[in-house]
Amino acid sequence: DTEVTQTPKHLVMGMTNKKSLKCEQHMGHRAMYWYKQKAKKPPELMFVYSYEKLSINESVPSRFSPECPNSSLLNLHLHALQPEDSALYLCASSQSGGPGELFFGEGSRLTVL
Amino acid sequence: EDQVTQSPEALRLQEGESSSLNCSYTVSGLRGLFWYRQDPGKGPEFLFTLYSAGEEKEKERLKATLTKKESFLHITAPKPEDSATYLCAVFTGGGSNYKLTFGKGTLLTVNP
């Protein structure tokens, strides 16, 4: 069983909705990540929270906004999404923001209608 | 620009038929290479980390090796449950500027 827990596992939303994806890790890691993965493609980095500092992939649109309430929680707020945002959203954590294994959650499957 | 290329894109094996997956990379400042297994609709599952050329890691039927230009994931006597997409990723950079670059993966199918 993964120690990175993502909820919900599935989410269907309209383009005018506001929703959130939640991620919690139980390993005492100091870095957490959001990735987006389309079918048959590798994961693409969206955001990194490492030691309370946020790093953003500049190609990510502002309709996605991360929130890190504490070092074990990372949320992804979704607003005014487009159908092309439908994908598997993966949360991951690592011991630090440096070179080291990333441990992924099982993902949240998002469908935007 | 860092590049990670995995081959083949897809591989179909019979149960018990050993083979290898390749991950070749062109990066500056390799800090580590990771192998992941991903089942459909699930998050990647960590398998191995390799840090330096000549390093090898083993786990059950899997063995990962690393050279200065590529890594191999050897699968010995595979079983149907080994069917999955295998992802390679390289960690580069330094200071506060690390980067993880994934390959596109190899879809492995093992038939009984």
Overview of the molecule:
The complex is a heterodimer of chains A (113) and B (112). In chain A, the strands form 2 sheets. In chain A, strands 2, 4, 5, 6, 9, 10 and 11 form a 7-stranded mixed beta sheet that branches. In chain A, strands 1-3-8-7 form a 4-stranded antiparallel beta sheet, with no helix packed on it. Chain A contains no helices and 11 strands. Chain A is mainly β. By secondary structure, chain B is mainly beta. Chain B is built from no helices and 11 strands. In chain B, strands 2, 4, 5, 9, 10 and 11 form a 6-stranded mixed beta sheet that branches. Chain B has a 5-stranded antiparallel beta sheet with strand order 1-3-8-7-6, with no helix packed on it. In chain B, a hairpin with a 3-residue loop joins strand 7 and strand 8. Chain B starts with a strand and ends with a strand. Classes of the chains: A mainly beta (113), B mainly beta (112).
Summarize, please.
The complex is a heterodimer of chains A (113) and B (112). Chain A is an all-beta fold.
| Helical residue percent band of chain B | under 10%
What is the makeup of the main sheet of chain A? 7 strands, mixed
- Span between N and C termini of chain B? 41 Å
Find the biggest chain interface: A-B, 24 and 21 residues
Task: Report the average pLDDT across residues of chain A.
Answer: 92
Tally of separate helices of chain A: 0
- Helical run tally of chain B: 0
Q: Class by helix and strand content of chain B?
A: mainly beta
Low-confidence stretches of chain A: none
Beta content of chain B comes to over 45%
Write the layout of secondary structure elements.
The complex is a heterodimer of chains A (113) and B (112).
Chain A: E1 4-7, E2 10-13, E3 18-25, E4 31-37, E5 44-50, E6 53-56, E7 64-70, E8 73-79, E9 87-94, E10 103-104, E11 108-112
Parallel strand pairs in A: 2-11
Antiparallel strand pairs in A: 1-3, 3-8, 4-5, 4-9, 5-6, 7-8, 9-10, 9-11
Chain B: E1 3-7, E2 10-14, E3 19-26, E4 30-38, E5 45-50, E6 56-59, E7 62-66, E8 70-75, E9 84-94, E10 97-102, E11 106-111
Parallel strand pairs in B: 2-11
Antiparallel strand pairs in B: 1-3, 3-8, 4-5, 4-9, 6-7, 7-8, 9-10, 9-11
